[in-house]
């Protein structure tokens, strides 16, 4: 199993990259789980499957929190697992999707979250790839709702805030002692060689590898305006081609890890 967490400052384009990675990798295997861990929950729209999402994982957890005392001696983990499999997993054509939903409300969710972690661990073992569209700062990892990633992909644009968030994520990943194999930086909506050089220098200074620079693409804005998924980008698009190369790199890394 290979877990890829895509993160970065809000608005930098991490959901777009998460959707395209899911799109390309799922063309090679059906054992792909996409996880929308961002409270804004934009990944289903980017993939074009929003109408298939029945419930978020947060909604299942809320139902459990309210009903658990009425379950008596029932196997609560089994109940939660059944609800997740039956209601929270969106079975798409070539991949599955889970939407985490917004953070829980007031009250203690320790017991519910503990059961949830166990169910997710069992669930994830059935997949070859887990692609996580994470909220900025890796909060889901600090709460241990999702176990550590194999690879962290930080998406940044040309803004100082985007770079500052990338640096903070690198620091946080070290503070949490996440057992990742590597951490990468992707420049998004890059419009000049000067910007590429600035980001590359920044990456060298904080010890991150640059995967690639994705160009500004007006077609992405057009698709968004029309309410169409980003996976509908034409194959001739430079953005499409570069994102596919990033996906192919992860496919190669996964193949190497499974043949050791």
UniProtKB/TrEMBL annotation:
Transmembrane segments: none annotated. Residues 4-230 form the CobQ/CobB/MinD/ParA nucleotide binding domain. This is AAA family ATPase.
């Amino acid at each position: 199993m290979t877990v890829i967490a895509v993160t970065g400052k809000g608005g930098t384009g991490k959901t777009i990259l998460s959707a395209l990675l899911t799109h390309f990798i799922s063309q090679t295997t059906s054992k792909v789980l996409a996880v929308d861990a961002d409270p804004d929950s934009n990944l289903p729209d980017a993939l074009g499957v929003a109408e298939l999402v029945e419930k978020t994982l947060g909604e299942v957890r809320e139902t459990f929190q309210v009903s658990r005392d009425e379950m008596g001696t029932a196997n609560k983990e089994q109940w939660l697992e059944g609800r997740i499999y039956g209601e929270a997993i969106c079975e798409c054509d070539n991949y599955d999707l889970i939407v985490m939903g917004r953070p829980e409300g007031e009250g203690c969710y320790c017991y519910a979250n503990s059961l949830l972690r166990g169910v997710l661990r069992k669930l994830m073992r059935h997949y070859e790839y887990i692609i996580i569209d994470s909220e900025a700062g890796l909060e889901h990892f600090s709460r241990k709702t999702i176990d550590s990633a194999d690879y962290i992909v930080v998406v940044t644009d040309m803004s100082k805030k985007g770079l500052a968030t990338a640096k903070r994520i690198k620091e946080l990943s070290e503070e949490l002692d996440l057992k990742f194999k590597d951490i990468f930086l992707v420049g998004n909506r890059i419009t000049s060689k000067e910007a590429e050089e600035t980001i590359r220098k920044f990456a060298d200074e904080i010890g991150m590898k640059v995967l690639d620079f994705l160009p500004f693409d007006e077609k992405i804005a057009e698709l968004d305006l029309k309410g169409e998924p980003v996976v509908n980008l034409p194959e001739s698009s430079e953005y499409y081609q570069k994102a596919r190369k990033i996906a192919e790199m992860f496919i190669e890394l996964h193949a190497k890890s499974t043949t050791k």
